[in-house]
Specification:
Blueprint (H helix, E strand, L loop, with lengths): L4 H6 L4 E7 L11 E7 L3 H14 L3 E3 L6 E3 L4 E6 L8 E4 L2 E5 L4 H10 L2 E2 L11 H7 L2 E2 L2 E2 H4 E8 L4 E5 H4 L13 E9 L1 E2 L2 H18 L19 H7 L6 E2 L2 E3 L7 E3 L5 H19 L8 E3 L3
Parallel strand pairs: 2-5, 3-5, 4-18
Antiparallel strand pairs: 1-2, 6-7, 7-13, 8-14, 9-10, 11-12, 11-13, 15-16, 16-17
């Protein structure tokens, strides 16, 4: 990285930071340093950054709000790219809403509701960015991104700028093609429907109240840790196995929601991984069910 440091700083790709603790950028408050953190503030800067990485064959990792990601204690080698600034926008065109990769998914559900558009209510409790939500086909309350997705502008790892529609994205449960074909979302367009503002607001309020009652929002966490197995719930299995409150180091199975692991005090990534492994082996032994992680584990081990 030292060899291209001057090129990075002169490339007009946004702010470039070095040796940055990623615990400051994840909702778990866990993670070692990134060699380089780039904060592009426009589509042009994001494209230029990825093209520069491709030119020098430097590995890079996308980072949104860090709400569904566990960064290792040794951190991430290479470059981390976090869209910011001008990629935090929203615009409306009838029933179509387009938002930048860095825009809050929760905020998007609220502003869409104020516009009298329904379809995004499920996003009211998903603490990530639009880019991250598209990447993982985020969902809740019986709906997900694929139900309302129209298209997205994406920078592939080659630096090519493409537009993908719903079929191109190969959506499935908590999955999109971007988990195999690397790329970074620039912006996404969702197709909503006209609705009643008061009814939409009531649904969002009900979801918010339920979230406050059933999720440990006052503690550092990363949302659901495991995917729900077919016709069941990971939280039910974990609770039934008596693991609610189980602790390893600073990581603890939430007393509020069994499919959340909270940072109960100076937790490390290794604490979380050890606790996840214990949960998986316990559930496998007790119920014969393989729990699949929903969180993305990244970084040097």
């Amino acid at each position: 990285m030292e060899a291209i440091k001057a090129e990075l700083e002169q490339a007009g790709i946004g702010e470039v930071l070095y040796d940055v603790p990623l615990s400051n950028y994840t909702t778990w408050k866990i993670g070692g340093p990134a060699d380089v953190l780039i904060l592009p503030e426009s589509k042009e800067q994001l494209v230029a950054a990825i093209r520069l990485m491709n030119k020098h064959r430097i590995s890079w990792t996308n980072l949104g709000r860090g709400s569904n990601m566990l960064v290792s204690d040794k951190g991430i080698r290479g470059v981390v790219i976090k869209p910011s600034g001008g990629l935090d926008f929203v615009r409306f065109d009838g029933c179509l809403v387009t938002a930048g990769a860095g825009y809050s998914f929760i905020k998007l559900s609220v502003v869409a509701g104020k516009e009298g558009l329904t379809g995004l209510e499920f996003a009211g409790g998903i603490p990530g960015t639009v880019g991250g939500a598209v990447y993982m086909n985020a969902g809740a309350h019986g709906s997900d991104v694929s139900r309302i997705f129209k298209s997205a502008e994406i920078v592939l790892e080659t630096g090519e700028l493409v537009t993908y529609d719903r079929d191109d994205m190969k959506f499935s449960y908590r999955h999109s093609i971007l988990q195999e074909q690397r790329g970074s979302v620039v912006e996404a367009t969702f197709e909503l429907a006209e609705g009643n503002r008061k009814e939409i607001s009531a649904v969002l309020s009900a979801f918010k109240d339920k979230r406050r009652q059933t999720q440990p929002l006052q503690m550092p966490c990363a949302g659901s840790v495991f995917r729900n197995p077919p016709n069941d719930f990971a939280a039910r299995l974990i609770q039934e196995a008596g693991l609610k409150g189980y602790r390893y180091g600073g990581a603890q199975v939430s007393e509020v929601h069994a499919n959340f692991i909270v940072n109960a005090g100076q937790a490390t990534a290794e604490d979380v991984l050890a606790l996840m492994s214990h949960i998986q082996s316990t559930i496998k032994e007790r119920f014969g069910v393989e729990l699949v992680p929903e969180v993305l584990v990244v970084g040097e081990r």
